[in-house]
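tokens incoming
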């Protein structure tokens, strides 16, 4: 066995597992803290706050009597409230009977608290996940900034070929005689890019140091790899951010649109990509994958993709957005993930898209490692996306999940009494079976989907 050859793969595996544990631990901690703190505010006592399951590695008891602990298996967590028999908030009937004669102590249990307190405590976990996502997206918008309007050259990309006159600080007025639109005009930028002639060198009308000039520059959207999509053909082949694709199957290209057309016309056949990487010419062979992509009307369309994100020939100059705009961006991103996830699930159920779009823990771990390798901002952004997904999943009306508990509370609010203990036990067993089945199905996708 080639031990030295195995070491990089082993290191990559450790990095993937570590990134997954960090991402999951942050999301679980926020989710469970939501349950804990709202429960505390509404008068429900927490006996245990645990990150992880299994044997306890470290614990301490605070002045309120709550045991805070880290357990051996870092793949989840829970809050066990007074009166709970387990981490799923099943009722401890013996403990509840012992407290039946003590109304004050009973009030501080999960099962003896008023309906509003129980509902708020259960709902707080997913809500805290959504709030964390909004705040992360807000912080990313504030730190990364938004493209300056009018479009301004920030830094020229390192591209193959001759040097161009376009330079940092140039304010773009028109390209090949077509005025550059404002980003505030819906759809105008896409129409502008589509109207550009597909040629290696374009004529840019710019304002530079208060002077209006006409200079030569590269095609606005070159065949550039801005970033690589996790679990894609490009990632498997070894493409990296900053690569420039100069030819496909020996045919020279210079535009991202040419790359997209070639991939879509490949019919899934292998493609030979010639890549320019910091002055070196490399070749990669990869097979495009069929990808179900969301459309503006909520439907999905299957396209062949290799898994790269393009970009302009330069990085746009940015400016710090207003707090209101950044917060609106956080809300919009979170809402898009929620609606997109629901639409995707609906399309999978009716059979319009493949169930392979549902990833399990293996796929999520691989994505965690890939995003962490692209930098802190990408990894934090991924945590926000995953946090929204976890919050949404927990709101599904399945017994044993937060959404299932909220359905029970809705039933209690309508009928004036909770479901019987026997019915709850049966429903919780069914719910746990459904969750385990879903997990096994997702793991099967990770292992067997192409």
């Amino acid at each position: 066995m080639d031990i030295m050859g195995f070491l990089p793969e082993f290191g990559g595996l450790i990095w993937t597992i570590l990134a997954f544990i960090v991402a999951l631990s942050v999301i679980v901690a926020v989710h469970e803290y939501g349950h804990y703190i709202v429960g505390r505010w509404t008068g429900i006592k927490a006996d245990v706050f645990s990150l992880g399951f299994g044997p306890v590695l470290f614990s301490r008891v605070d002045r309120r009597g709550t045991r805070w602990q880290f357990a051996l298996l870092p793949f989840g967590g829970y809050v066990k409230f007074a009166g709970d028999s387990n981490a799923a908030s099943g009722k401890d009937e013996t403990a509840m009977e012992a407290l039946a004669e003590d109304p004050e102590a009973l009030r501080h249990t999960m099962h003896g608290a008023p309906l509003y307190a129980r509902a708020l405590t259960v709902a707080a976990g997913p809500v805290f996940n959504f709030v964390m996502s909004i705040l992360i997206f807000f912080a990313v918008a504030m730190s990364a900034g938004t493209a300056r309007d009018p479009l301004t050259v920030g830094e020229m990309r390192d591209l193959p070929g001759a040097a161009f006159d376009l330079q940092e600080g140039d304010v773009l007025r028109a390209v090949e005689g077509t005025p550059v639109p404002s980003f505030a005009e819906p759809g105008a930028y896409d129409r502008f890019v589509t109207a550009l002639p597909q040629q290696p060198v374009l004529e840019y009308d710019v304002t530079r140091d208060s002077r209006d000039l006409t200079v030569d520059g590269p095609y606005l959207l070159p065949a550039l790899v801005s970033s690589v999509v996790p679990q894609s053909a490009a990632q498997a082949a070894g493409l990296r951010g900053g690569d420039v694709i100069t030819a496909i199957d020996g045919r020279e290209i210079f535009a991202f649109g040419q790359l997209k057309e070639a991939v879509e016309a490949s019919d899934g056949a292998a493609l030979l990509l010639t890549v320019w990487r910091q002055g070196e010419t490399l070749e990669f062979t990869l097979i495009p994958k069929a990808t179900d992509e969301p459309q503006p009307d909520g439907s999905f369309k299957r396209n062949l993709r290799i898994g790269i994100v393009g970009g302009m020939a330069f990085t746009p100059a940015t400016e710090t957005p207003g707090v209101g705009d950044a917060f609106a961006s956080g809300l919009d991103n979170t809402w898009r993930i929620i609606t997109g996830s629901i639409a995707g699930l609906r399309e999978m159920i009716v059979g319009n898209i493949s169930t392979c779009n549902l990833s399990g823990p293996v796929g999520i771990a691989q994505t965690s490692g890939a995003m962490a390798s692209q930098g802190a901002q990408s990894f934090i952004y991924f945590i926000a996306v995953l946090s929204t997904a976890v919050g949404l999943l927990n709101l599904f009306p399945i017994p044993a999940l937060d959404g299932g508990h909220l359905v029970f509370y809705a039933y209690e609010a309508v009928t004036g009494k909770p479901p019987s203990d026997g019915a709850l036990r049966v429903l919780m067993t069914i719910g746990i079976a459904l969750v385990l089945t879903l997990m096994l199905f997702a793991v099967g996708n990770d292992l067997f989907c192409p």
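note: The CA atoms of residues 179 and 251 lie 32 Å apart.
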